[in-house]
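Notes from the pairing session

We agreed to fold both candidates in a single pass and log them together. This is the raw record for the first candidate, unedited. Please don't reformat it; downstream parsing expects exactly this layout.

Candidate A
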Amino acid sequence: MAVGDCSLSIQKGAITGLIGPNGAGKSTLFNIIAGFLKPDAGTVSLAGENITGLPPYKLFRKGVLRTFQVPHEFDRMTVLENLMLVPPGQWGENALAPLFRWRRVREQEMTVRKKAEDVLDFLQLSRLKTELAGNLSGGQKKLLELGRTMMTDAKIVLLDEPGAGVNRTLLGNLANDIRRLNQELGYTFCIIEHDMDLIMQLCHPVIVMAQGKVLAQGAMEDLRNNSQVQDAYLGGPAQ
């Protein structure tokens, strides 16, 4: 049982950290929330609505977005095209619409393109908009994944190790963008991360998982002095 008797809540408008040793059940929990795995028991709720077991595409339309430790870009499409693909329900997806409703298709495409260009400006990636996504560095791909979450009305964004494999300069940019999305646009984040500096910088509260359960939660400063957390994850008392 990867996750059992695990109960937690993510506050709207917060950046919540989710930490714990490898095998604690963090990614499994994300997969359950985002619909990639169906739980054997228990309930997942979004703003009071039971969303347990809904498939990812339905949860996506409800504003539940999940990123992965290894980015999943369309590597042979440009950075701009990767963003323009995201919004659901586009008229161009209908095979007959370009023939009979071409003006509507064109207008919508222009609107989506403008939004994608605004997102790239926000992330300081505009210079790469015509670059194939497969040519980006690991850190740039993480920024692109964050940009994809900005192309729809996200209610909660589940970030799985956004700092993994990212150099310190781009990691600073990524942290700043997450903070701006939270403070300026009201995005709610839950972040799995092993980089404690990033967790300290961004997250409050922080939830600690171990053996598929919540071990403790609160401010990172307090958790560092929690003996159970030290034994399970942090490797001894804080110095």
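Candidate B (folded immediately after A)
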Amino acid sequence: MNDSLFHVLNGLAGRSEAGDTLIIFLTNPFAYLVAVILVIFFFHHKDEGGGVRDGVVILSAAMLSWFLALALKEFFAEPRPFVALEDITPLISVSALDGSGAFPSGHTAFFASVVGSLYFYHRRAAYWFAAVPLLIGFARVAAGVHFPIDILGGYLLGLAIGFGVYAFYHMRTDSPSGREREGAL
């Protein structure tokens, strides 16, 4: 299943210049655009001073996901498709990817953690945002730098960390001593 889905998605690359441009855009530049949109959303969202709190929780979850994904890549050391399969030529530059494993996808974990923590603050935005890590992930499969299982692993890792960071923050701030600490900020 993993191999057949990989070949279907990776088969989208190399068909047209416009398609390749879209895949390349979705692998990385799209992530920066989404991050800017998210920052703008928090600055313009009306929420009784919660925007900073929301941003801290969401950014903390995202950074934790990124670093944990990097650590897990070392632990699992799964090769990337262009290393594991002779017939795969990556669509994006591989210089930064040469020494790193593929599982789990750090890009997908990062943005899925944003979805996981955003869900508790802004459900409607989280539902819309849930497609972002999947678009990025599928584009990275199409580009030949991840297998579908890497994307699934990153998505689940990110969601779990997003939920966990939110729960940890509120466990600390919703306790009587936590409310006193938060009030002192």
